[in-house]
Amino acid sequence: MAMRRLLGLLLLAGALTLGARAAQAHPHVWIVATSELIYAPDGAITGVRHAWTFDDMFSTYALQGIETRKKGVYSREELGPLAQTNVESLKEYAYFTFAKADGKKEKFQEPIDYFLDYKDEALTLHFTLLLKTPVKPRQLSLELFDPSYFIDFQLAEKNPIVLVGAPAACQMKLQRPTDGSANAQRLGEDNFANGDNSNYGAMFANKITVDCP
Q: Cα separation of 53 and 103, whole Å?
């Protein structure tokens, strides 16, 4: 039952009706994210490895009904079915991970090496997304966000993005969202007033750019 509840919450990110979306202008699930961009020895980027830590309220809700050998302690094995349901539910939303190589959209394979762990009253989902085809762009851009803004993504304060195996000459830039700013609030209100709320969350996207000469 806990797995179904988690799936249902994540599906809400894309299944809210037009009227409901206008009322759901603020996130209901919060995630602190760290990511690794993975490079091959030849300098091609092969994928991204995510670690998403859910807020404590959502974590508590998701864990309801899961049986454990020791109260309050959850092993990877015990959380395995929940992790599988989690990543499967994200497929419809492209895993909230959007990549472009020299301006061309790139597609990911289905997640591998996924698991959940539980620490400090919070669940963290780990998974790896490999590109369908490794690429060697001069510029790679990666955005992390939920278009409906049902889920709020915040990059961790320390070492949020790590380049693993990237050529030494590559330079990374990070742009955090302007969540809470007066400008973002005004844009959001204008969008809803005009009926354009299909990609509201893009205003709060975390943007990573890697330039490799």
A: 30
d(CA 89, CA 197) in angstroms, rounded, equals: 22
pTM recorded for the entire structure: 0.81
What is the dihedral angle through the alpha carbons of 165, 168, 145, 62, rounded to the nearest 10 degrees? 30
Phi/psi-derived region of residue 103, left when phi > 0, alpha when psi is between -120 and 50, beta in every other case: left
Question: Which residues, in sequence order, are CB contacts of 180 under 8 Å at separation 6+?
Answer: none
Task: Please calculate the CA angle 183-143-123 and round it to the nearest 5 degrees.
Answer: 100
| 87-101 burial: b if 16+ Cβ within 10 Å, else e | bebbeebebbbbbbb
Q: Which stretches of the chain are assigned E, i.e. beta strand?
A: 29-39, 45-54, 97-101, 104-106, 112-119, 122-135, 139-144, 151-155, 161-164, 171-175, 206-211
What is the structure's pLDDT at 28? 85
The pLDDT tens digits for 86-101 are 999 899 899 999 999 9
3-state secondary structure of 72: coil
Pairing of strands 139-144, 122-135: unpaired
Name the phi and psi angles at 94, rounded to 5: 55, 30
Domains of the chain, residue spans: 2-211
